[in-house]
Amino acid sequence: MPVSDALDVGPFFHGTKADLRVGDLLTAGFRSNYRPEVVMNHIYFTALRDGAGLAAELAVGEGAPRVYVVEPTGAFENDPNVTDKKFPGNPTRSYRSAEPLRIVGEVTDWTRQTPGALRAWRDRLAVVRADERGEIIN
């Protein structure tokens, strides 16, 4: 597994509502779960199983939230959307790669969010999207 600049060595996780199998590749080029008007140039992942679980629960789609163990197939970097912009360092252990991620397994023992916590996360994301569009939300 390629490691970039002494970053985490894993295991790594990706949360989604897609039904995938071991050996499948996750690739960039799809719409963002959080900003659907944006097509992603990178695939995002984390070294925190529960962080991937939260991403799975917030992902678009009708499927069940799933957390996959993934292996980067190429270089990766700290996720610049959170690293040092929102949190000093990389406490979320969030990364991105322009290269595919290979599914190597699935985990089912991640911590689920309560309905109230999910509502709060969705509300925060709605405020962020509205702010980016210059809208006001009460």
In sequence order, what are the helices and strands, one letter per element?
Answer: EEEHEEEEH
Strand order of the largest sheet: 1-4-7-2
* DSSP, total strands: 7
- Report strand %: 15-25%
Which class of secondary structure composition applies to the elements? alpha+beta
Q: What's the rounded overall pLDDT mean? A: 83
Shape: globular
Number of helices: 2
Radius of gyration: 15 Å
Distance between the termini: 46 Å
Unreliably modeled segments: none
Largest sheet: 4 strands, antiparallel
The helix fraction, in percent, is 10-25%
Please characterize this protein's 3D structure:
This protein is an alpha+beta fold and 138 residues long. The chain contains two helices and seven strands, in the order βββαββββα. The protein is globular, with a radius of gyration of 15 Å.
